[in-house]
Design a protein that fits this description.
The complex is a heterodimer of chains A (about 110) and B (about 325). Helices cover about 70% and strands about 0% of the residues of chain A. Chain A has about 110 residues and is mainly α. In chain A, helix 1 (about 5-25) runs antiparallel to helix 2 (about 30-50) and helix 2 (about 30-50) packs antiparallel against helix 3 (about 60-90). The model of chain A is unreliable at about 100-113 (pLDDT under 50). Chain B contains 11 helices and 2 strands. Chain B starts with a helix and ends with a strand. Classes of the chains: A mainly alpha (about 110), B mainly alpha (about 325).
């Protein structure tokens, strides 16, 4: 039992949890959070594999580290775009749930577009 | 079992409980708060994995800025939440649980049965560090050995901001993003917004500068700068600029633009696209990073403030 095993199993469970939340939560914001949880598990798997590749005085393989840093920023921008879409939908008075049979409400757009 | 292992198991268990809470709790607002705590503690896991650069990024971007983004959205959606109470059917839940557990089990067994001699690029990275004269291997990979990824990632940030801005309603097109914040001048937030930015700006520039040789870099520094700007916006001390401003757009393309110019210069004068001559590598990389930190700070801040909602005069 070492850091790699403990955090590796944790990362796998985080991916599973995120996937479950993504499928079962009808609210888009909860889906976004679930998706981020899934992503954080995938990043941690990178970190775990990189930790095993520690060599030449570097504690964690720098190539997966760099990929994860890039990935975190890309995940953030995708989240920001998803939330902007959600906010616009909310502003337009659309249903903020993805469940079946939620009737589209006819709330007027406060910004008149 | 050593103390370190016990600490790691406790840490993993606490973060796991937060993850379950985030998925299972009823109110979206609580889920958001749970996710922020989760993001900050995951940064500790990264420290334990000896990846301090990633830990800084995770704490600053996922935990900090991502948290503000989600909290803002959750607060604005709170009134809509009451109407959305439809739960998925039991069949969906059971099959989702089955699928998720299978995925988790497959990944966990993959981790447990990894090959005994792990493949690694660390010696290759360490062996080529002379080419850039930077001592931080992660910065070397980000800015030189896999500079293409970093450049394209800047383009992704740019595309995201274009996507967010194109959601503006017609009458706010090119206007100011977000709501105008009004705060009481005696408010604690206003006090903090006057006190913290000088410190935060120095810290952000330090983290960027030290990234050449120690953990840190343009992403982490840029995130700190962005949060300082957002603090002054939220306290009502400054307003968001209209997105049609030419200087703003110039800042947004400065990072990827300079990166692309240097890359094409490598194609013209040197061996390949994005190849730096070793003698000039460090100044070139630092130059790109200076442009990049400005672009990153501006883009992250503007992604958080969202689509334009007010025309210029409002």
């Amino acid at each position: 039992m070492n850091a790699v095993t403990v955090f590796g199993i944790f990362a796998a469970v985080a991916v599973g949890l995120g996937l479950y939340g993504l499928i079962t939560n009808p609210e888009p914001l909860r889906k976004i959070i679930g998706f981020n949880l899934l992503g954080s598990g995938v990043f941690l798997l990178f970190g775990v594999v990189g930790r095993r590749g520690a060599a030449a005085g570097i504690g964690n393989d720098p190539v997966p580290q760099a990929l994860v840093i890039t990935g975190v920023v890309v995940a953030f921008s995708a989240t920001a775009l998803a939330i902007a879409l959600l906010m616009r939908l909310h502003q337009k008075g659309g249903p903020t749930t993805l469940g079946n049979g939620s009737p589209p409400s006819a709330r007027s757009d406060p910004l008149g577009s | 079992m050593s103390i370190a292992t016990v600490f790691e198991i406790v840490l993993a268990a606490v973060v796991l409980i937060l993850g379950i809470w985030t998925i299972a709790v009823r109110e979206t607002y609580s889920a958001t708060v749970g996710f922020i705590a989760y993001g900050l503690l995951v940064a500790l896991i990264w420290v334990r994995l000896d990846a301090v650069d990633v830990a800084l990024t995770e704490a600053a971007i996922s935990g900090g800025l991502g948290g503000v983004l989600l909290l803002g959205a959750a607060a604005r959606l709170q009134d809509a939440e009451l109407t959305a109470t439809e739960a998925p059917s039991k069949v969906t839940r059971v099959s989702a649980a089955l699928l998720s557990s299978l995925t988790a089990a497959a990944l966990a067994s993959a981790v447990l049965f990894l090959p005994d001699s792990p493949p690694t690029l660390a010696p290759t990275v360490a062996g080529h560090a002379w080419a850039t004269s930077l001592a931080n291997p992660v910065t070397n990979v980000l800015m030189a050995f896999r500079a293409m990824d970093t450049m394209l990632e800047k383009v992704v940030l740019l595309l995201a901001i274009i996507g967010v801005w194109s959601l503006a309603p017609d009458d706010a097109w090119g206007g100011r993003p977000g709501l105008r914040h009004q705060a009481d001048p005696n408010d604690i937030l206003v006090f903090l917004a006057r006190l913290l930015p000088p410190v935060g700006i120095v810290a952000g520039i330090y983290i960027f500068w030290t990234g050449a040789n120690h953990p840190g870099g343009a992403f982490q520094g840029g995130a700190i700068l962005a949060s300082m700007w957002l603090l002054t916006v939220m306290a009502g001390l400054t307003d968001t600029p209209p997105v049609s401003r030419r200087w703003l757009r110039f800042v947004l393309i400065a990072g990827p633009g300079l990166f692309l110019i240097v890359g094409l210069g490598g194609l013209w004068f040197g061996a390949a696209f994005l190849a730096y001559p070793p003698a000039l590598a460090k100044p070139l990389i630092l130059g790109i990073e200076v442009a990049m930190i400005l672009t990153i700070a501006a883009t992250l801040g503007l992604l958080l403030t969202g689509a334009p909602e007010r025309s210029e005069g409002q």
